Amino acid sequence: MSVAEFLRQRAVDVAVSGSYSLPRWYDCEGKLRSFACRTKRVSPFRMIVDVPVIGKVGERVTSYFQDFGEFQCTISATLKAGFLMELDMTRARRAWMSEKLTWLEKKQKDASVQELRRDARFVPQVSHTVLTLADGSSHPCFIIDVSTAGVAVSSEYDPAIGTPLAVGACVGRVIRKFDYGFAVKFAEKQDRDDLTRLIVRAPLLKSA
User: Fold this and answer.
1) Which of 44, 79, 113, 131 is 20 to 30 A from 102, comparing alpha carbons?
2) In 10 A of CB 103, how many CB atoms?
3) Which carries the bigger pLDDT value, residue 13 or residue 200?
4) Residue 197 pLDDT greater than 90, yes or no
5) Mean pLDDT in residue range 170-180
């Protein structure tokens, strides 16, 4: 199915954090790499996900989401910063998924939860930014979440702990690595109201 066709179908626009792995991506130890991702639009049959590494149409994907669990999927279309996945599941699980989406849709409209944990980690509306290294080189990355003290990202680039770099305009250092990304601690604590403006940077276009 095409993305345009899916956008005309009944689905829920909801952001649920997760992780995924592609069949051809391995780390230096030969282990299958995982990357962070986030849903943008979901139905009981398919979903659009925002990702740091885009797979190919027809590839099988193993994914896991906090609110949905694990899926075996097939990529049916790609976007600039994501792809459309066809979900393989039983009829019973599709029924459960439908009920879960109805609940999530109601929950995200509940104004009482909008201002909770103001100083905690949050997810910016724009998911992609740029890492800039000390040598001036840059790499695209996916923002998992961010706080005034640091940011968690997922990227094809795999730095060592202690690597100094900038995430957008915020300078920091890699302090921790996990299965599908790494954490950067800012050199200085940031103002929460300025974070999205400072963090989000579009990749520079190369001139012809």
Assistant:
1) 79
2) 11
3) 13
4) no
5) 92
Query: For residue 3, what are its two tokens?
Result: 């993305």
Higher-scoring residue by pLDDT: 125, 22: 22
SS3 category, 44:
coil
At 138-164, the pLDDT tens digits run: 999 999 989 899 999 999 999 999 999
pLDDT of the residue at 114: 46
- Give the separation between CA 76 and CA 85, rounded to whole angstroms: 6
**How far is residue 145's CA from residue 199's CA, in Å, rounded to a whole number?**
11
Predicted TM-score (pTM) of the model is 0.73
* DSSP 8-state symbol, 167: E
Quickly count helices (H) and strands (E) in the chain. Answer: 3, 12
Q: Position 22: which residue type?
A: L
First to last CA, the chain: 34
CA-CA distance, 114 to 63, in Å (whole number)?
27
| DSSP code string of 98-142 | HHHHHHHHHHHT-GGGTTTTTTS-B--S--EEEEEETTS-EEEEE
pLDDT at 113 exceeding the cut of 50:
no
**Cα three-residue angle 117-118-124, rounded to 5 degrees:** 105
For residues 169 and 152, give the distance between their C-alpha atoms in angstroms, rounded to a whole number.
15
